[in-house]
Amino acid sequence: MSEGRLNSDFRSQLLVGGAIVASLVLVVVYLAAGGSSYAPAQVQDPCKHREWTDPGTLQEVAQQFSLSALDGAACELGVSREELTLALPDEESRQRFLDEYDIGTEEFAKAIRAGLLRAIEDAEDAGALSPLVAGPLRATIEDIPLDQAIELVEDAGSAFETFQNFLGPAGDLLEQIFG
Q1: Does residue 87 surpass a pLDDT of 50?
Q2: Reported pTM
Q3: In which domain, by residue range, is 10 found?
Q4: How many CB atoms are located within 10 Å of the residue 41 CB?
C-alpha cells in the first residue's frame, strides 16, 4: 500500500473517532444538565385566573385580553387553553375539536362568549379597560356572531385599535374623565 493511501485511511479513522468522541461528550453534557429527567411543563388550569401585568401598550392589553378570553372559554369547555387555541384557526379544525370532545356548536359559541366576558372583566379589574368601554363591549359580546367572537379572541388588538380610532380624540378625553 502506498503511503498516501495510509494517510488517507488514518485521516478517515481520525474523523470518525473525533465524531464519536464529540457525540459522547454531547451526551455526557446533556445528562449532566438534567436531560435524563426532562418532563414537559404542566399545562396551566384555564379556570385559574392569571394576574395581568401592567399593560404599557394597546397591543399588550390585547394580548392579555386574548389569553384571558381563551382561558375563560377553555374553562367553560373543560379543555386546556392550548387545545382550544388549536381548534380556532379554521372551520375544519373547529369541527374536529367539537367532534373529539362531543361539544355542540351552541355550547361552543356560548363558551367563546363567556370567555370574552371574562376577559372584559379581567381587563376592567386590571384597570386596562375603563367601565365606559367595558359596558358597551359586554352588550356587543352578547349578540356577536360566532365567527366575529372567534376573531376577537384571536386578534383583540385590531378590534381595540378600531374602537380607539372610532372614538378618536373623544376617547382620550373620556378616558381622562372616567378612566
Answers
A1: yes
A2: 0.68
A3: 3-37
A4: 5
